[in-house]
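Slide 14.
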Amino acid sequence: MREAHVAKIRKYVNELWPKATTVVFGSFSTDLFLPDSDIDIVVYGVRHPDKLNMLAKRLYAAGFCSYCQVIPTAKIPVIKIAEMHTYCRIDLCFDVRG
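Slide 15: predicted structure.
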């Protein structure tokens, strides 16, 4: 199930930005996650100023998430979502230099 969520997010990211890469990190990537753990994903290679809102709108329009919150003012700007059917929580961020 979690792999399917990651695959769908990769698909939506690549529809918007074909050269972008998505990488899973955190507890899911190390197989140390608990049943209620979230999935952490970083997107590399996107240089669009409104990338957070673009991806959030795409995921919501696709019916992928039941909850979607963009937090652009966080130290590392993030999109927090809950997958539509399983309510699996997913945090998406973009590579941040500096």
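Speaker note: Helices lie at 2-16, 51-61.
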